[in-house]
Amino acid sequence: MSTVSENQVTEILKLSADLGRMLQHLGISMCTAESCTGGLISAFITDISGSSEWFDRAFVTYTNEAKMEMLGVSSDTLQQYGAVSSRTVEEMVRGAVERSAATVGVAVSGIAGPTGGTPEKPVGTVWMAWCYPDGYVETECHHFDGNRQEVRLCTVAEAFRRLLEKISAHT
Length: 171
Prior knowledge:
alpha/beta
C-alpha cells in the first residue's frame, strides 16, 4: 500500500472506533448494505474489538438480484434509475434496517472502476444513503478520484464521517 493508503486506513480505523463508541454510548446498533465496497465498510467495523456490541450485520449485495432478494429493492427502481442512484441506495438502506436489529444504517452503490463508467455516471461516482435513529433517510452522490481501492476507501471514510456527524442530530 502507498503511504496515502496507509494514512487512509489509519483514519478509517479511527473513524470506525469513534463511531463504535458513540453508538455504544447511545445504546444503538448499525448495519450496512454494500455494493461497490463489497463488505469493506463492515470489514473496518469488525476490525474493532468489541464491535459486536454496536454492529448487527452487513448485506453485501453486489448484483441487482441480490439487492432485490436481500434488501427488497424494487426491480422498477433498478430499471428506471439504475443500481447507482439515489432511489436504489435509499431502498437499500431501508431494507437493511428493516431486515436487521439495527437502528441506523448506511448503504453504498457506485462505480469503483477502472471500468463501468459512463458519461452520466463516471468512474468514482458513488451514491450513499444513511438511515438515522428517527427513521430519516438521507442520500448523497459523491465523485471520488483515484484508482479502484482509493474510491472504495474514500467511500468507507465518508460513510463513517457522515454517521458520526449526523446521528446526534437525529437521536
